[in-house]
Amino acid sequence: MSFLQLDHVSKHFGGLTVVDGVSLSADKGEFVVFVGPSGCGKSTLLRMIAGLEEISAGDVSIDGRVVTGVAPADRNVSMVFQSYALYPHMSVRENIAFGLKMAKTPKDQIETRIADAARILQIETLLDRKPRQLSGGQRQRVAIGRAIVRNPKLFLFDEPLSNLDAELRTQMRVEIAKLHRELGATMVYVTHDQIEAMTLADRIVVLRAGRVEQIGTPTELYDTPSSIFVAGFIGSPKMNFLAATITGQDSNGLRVGHPAFAGGEIHVRPTTNRPAPVGSAVTVGLRPEHLTLGGADPLLTLTVDFAENLGGATQLYATGPGGAAVVLMVPGRPPVTPGEVLAASLGAGQIHLFDGSGAAL
Ligand SMILES: Nc1ncnc2c1ncn2[C@@H]1O[C@H](COP(=O)(O)OP(=O)(O)OP(=O)(O)O)[C@@H](O)[C@H]1O
Ligand SMILES: [Mg+2]
Fold first, then answer.
1. In this structure, which residue's CA is closest to atom 4 in ligand 1?
2. Residues with CB under 5 A from ligand 2 (ion)
């Protein structure tokens, strides 16, 4: 049995269903990341796991015990919120100790646990400060410290880094990965950040309108998204989508037509057994980082709209015949000018194909 298990969990607010029959599991020590658009139910799901929100239907079990109906304090779960919610009048030490004092933990144990957490989070020198005397990143460490000292079986993080600037975010992301390794605890982590999801997760759960759209390792979701939705959500810059048509099928796979393709069509080998009748509308997906400039047998002909120099790489915005908008992420600073016509080839990546319903073909 998995360490954390959700069986057909739903949440209704009045007549509104915001989480709709979600089933998923996490093994002991696993790092699971929830991603999905705003309002898709990520926080609600976390809060139901924590016991802060009543479950309308279904069951949650933690470490083999059904906790539906068990009070939050008795679930052995710690949650870290986006707003650190530290008590402003208490010192860092008192903030971290607060939950333990409430649980009537012996004083010497509180001291030991605070010392351990402070060492792990490198906040030993800050223990006597008040929250207002801390930077955002330091406050976030204190909030995590408060979760650590309770020695929970399960950590829940709801966008813990979203209030930090880019540099601190990167630093804290590495800290959280280290923390996970050091504690070996099971973690469920909500984020909007592509890089956090890809780098921290053992598995990513993509949620859409209260339902699970796809669950997989970061590599699985990146390489074989099961739908346009997942394809567009995982990866940055976003995958390019071209509205195309199935023109035939032969021993090389499906023939897919679009005026931007060299010769008007390309071959794509389907990865599923879904039907793709001739004449049906499909979407071709190409990742910006998989397209290269030039090539002996180019895939696309494009006109450059503008180029963004990112230092080590260049992001090109281009348009193809038939109004296909295509973004390319290419290394270095190729000497291209707006209005220039370019050939682009597909490098190491693959061509993704989706049917009219958005499912991968
Ligand atoms: N107490 C409530 N009463 C009514 N609707 C609610 C309540 N709490 C949340 N919702 C609704 O439930 C849906 C899911 O909310 P939730 O906070 O879980 O989304 P989220 O995925 O965490 O979004 P975000 O990325 O913006 O944080 C939203 O449409 C929200 O408006
Ligand atoms: Mg949320």
1. 13
2. 43
